[in-house]
From TrEMBL:
Species of origin: Homoserinimonas hongtaonis
Function: Channel that opens in response to stretch forces in the membrane lipid bilayer. May participate in the regulation of osmotic pressure changes within the cell.
Residues that span the membrane, as ranges: 12-35, 70-93
Name of the gene: mscL
Single GO molecular function: mechanosensitive monoatomic ion channel activity
Source domain of life: Bacteria
Listed HAMAP family: MscL (MF_00115)
One GO term describing the cellular component: plasma membrane
Subcellular location: Cell membrane
UniProt xrefs under SUPFAM superfamilies: Gated mechanosensitive channel (SSF81330)
Main location: membrane
Protein name: Large-conductance mechanosensitive channel
Family in the record: Belongs to the MscL family.
Keyword terms of this UniProt record: Cell membrane, Ion channel, Ion transport, Membrane, Transmembrane, Transmembrane helix, Transport
Membrane topology, as annotated: Multi-pass membrane protein
Length: 145
């Protein structure tokens, strides 16, 4: 059981996911500070409120005397925060990675290999196939002798 756990932990994708979670948490703090410190107060000022969360509040009378509050500003603030996170992830992560992949694919199709470029999955599978074929031929030769 410990051996299996060690193999699980040592997989590259588990480490990559752990790094992504840590970086994502740190990145979330930056986006939250941006939204809460700049965008919410700026938009809240348009509605004559301290920030967006305290703007656009609709009070509904209840039988208990304490009015219920519908906080539309808080919903708008959450939507703005989501859009900012999505935009930053797209423009900072997705776009550059897609560009690099496209350039690497163009080089591969043109027959230009980068000296330190990691092998693609297709290249690795072809290499494994060739090694297995060689191993099988070697085994047939040994058995024939």
């Amino acid at each position: 059981m410990i051996k299996g756990f060690k193999e699980f932990i040592m997989r590259g994708n588990v480490i990559d996911l752990a790094v992504a979670v840590v970086i994502g948490a740190a990145f979330t703090a930056i986006v939250n500070a941006l939204v809460e410190g700049i965008f919410n107060p700026a938009i809240g000022a348009l509605f004559d409120a301290e920030d967006l969360k305290s703007a656009l509040i609709l009070e509904i009378p209840t039988t208990s005397g304490e009015p219920a509050q519908l906080m539309f500003g808080a919903v708008i603030a959450a939507a703005i925060q989501f859009l900012l996170v999505a935009a930053v992830v797209y423009f900072v992560l997705v776009t550059p990675v897609n560009y690099m992949r496209r350039k690497a694919e163009e080089k591969r199709k043109a027959g230009i290999e980068e000296p330190d470029a990691p092998a693609s999955e297709l290249d690795l599978l072809a290499e494994i196939r060739d090694l297995l074929s060689e191993q099988k031929r070697a085994q047939v030769t040994v058995d024939a002798e």
